[in-house]
Write a structure and sequence with these properties.
About 20% of the residues lie in helices and about 30% in strands. It is an alpha/beta fold and about 220 residues long. The protein folds into two domains: about 120 residues, Thiamin pyrophosphokinase, catalytic domain (Rossmann fold, 3-Layer(aba) Sandwich), CATH 3.40.50; about 55 residues, no CATH class. Strands 4-3-2-1-5-6-7-14-9-12 form a ten-stranded mixed beta sheet, with helices on both faces. Strand 6 and strand 7 form a beta hairpin.
């Protein structure tokens, strides 16, 4: 029996990177559990949200600390060998993770987030920026998109992906970094179906498709 969006546990992570109040409130509204990841405390306070937990190594907590968030449970993880995003991803159990405040700041932080998506494929996470949504391509997914919608499949390591509903099909292509990639592909209208032979590629869509992506991911199998 597949989970529905209403029955799925969705964890929302708020990071310290740039994010608008509208974006923070949008992903926060979907949360079964709301996590302020270290400096993401500031976003929670600005948006009038109260996290269930504050998590991270606490090297970027705002000072002064927001009065509205005094008393929120804190979980400090002090190791310096992982990012705060990775600490949160490995520490919180959920069916899906929506993450704002991780994509529109420093490029090295963004690359580290992509690394965590690849490192922890069993954790289906969506990075939400002001322009795009990014997730690790699951074993299979079907999502309805209008004709001309941008669909990018970007490999982080070598692998094959089969497709239906794309202007330029992926079947038979060996995607790999430094070789063939599939950025700025397009939907032909209707269901776009993707089938990956392993956890190797990012799926990147315009931000306006966040809701259908969430619904599709909840119905999709996950990597074990």
């Amino acid at each position: 029996m597949q989970a529905s969006e209403n029955s799925a546990t969705i964890a929302t992570f708020l990071g310290a990177g740039p994010a608008t109040i509208a974006t923070v409130r949008s992903v926060g509204a979907k949360a079964s559990i709301l996590v302020a990841v270290d400096g993401g405390v500031a976003h929670a306070a600005d948006a009038g949200l109260r996290p269930d937990v504050i998590l991270g190594d606490f090297d970027s907590l705002p000072s002064p600390f927001p009065d509205s968030l005094q008393g929120v449970t804190r979980r400090q993880i002090t190791d310096q060998d992982s990012t705060d995003f990775d600490k949160a991803l490995r520490s919180i159990e959920a069916d899906l993770y929506l993450c704002a405040g991780f994509t529109d700041g420093r490029i090295d932080h963004l690359l580290a987030c992509f690394h965590s998506l690849l490192k922890r494929p069993e954790r289906q996470a969506v990075l939400v920026s002001e322009s795009d949504v990014v997730t690790l391509l699951p074993p299979k997914i079907s999502i309805d998109l209008v004709s001309g919608a941008r669909v990018s499949v970007f490999p982080l390591k070598a692998g094959e992906t089969r497709s239906q509903g794309l202007k330029w099909p992926l079947d038979g292509l060996a995607l790999h970094p430094g070789g063939v990639v599939s950025t700025s592909n397009e939907a032909v209208g209707g269901p776009v179906r993707l089938l990956a032979d392993g956890p190797h590629s990012l799926l990147i869509l315009p931000r306006k498709y966040l809701d259908p992506l969430v619904s599709a991911l909840i119905q999709s199998p996950r990597w074990s």
